[in-house]
Amino acid sequence: MSVEHESVDELLHKSHYTPEELAELLDMSVDFIREEALQRRLRAIIIDHHVVSILRHDVITWLDDRR
Questions:
Q1: Burial degree of 34 (CB within 10 A; 0-12, 13-18, 19+)
Q2: Which CATH fold would you assign to the domain 8-66?
Q3: SS3 sequence, 12-61?
Q4: Alpha-carbon distance 14 to 1, whole Å?
Q5: What is the rounded CA–CA span in Å between residue 16 and residue 1?
Q6: Residue pair 12/25 in contact by the 8 Å Cβ criterion
Q7: Strand, helix or coil for residue 10
Q8: 11-15, 43-47, 52-56 — which is least confidently predicted?
Q9: pTM of the predicted structure, to 2 decimals
């Protein structure tokens, strides 16, 4: 079974991301994205130690802070 991936254009226009979507968009590992969120360096919605959603605004802030 193949997994449908959204295009970069579609990902860029989303208002929120899963860790998997954000990792794909930024060409980073999913584990890194999750760790950043769990360590509170990347603001995210976390339920029972699972990163559920990351708002686009928070991604932009996180990227700016990393520069």
A1: buried
A2: Arc Repressor Mutant, subunit A (1.10.10)
A3: HCCCEECHHHHHHHHCCCHHHHHHHHHCCCCCCEEECCEEEEEEHHHHHH
A4: 25
A5: 26
A6: yes
A7: helix
A8: 11-15
A9: 0.84
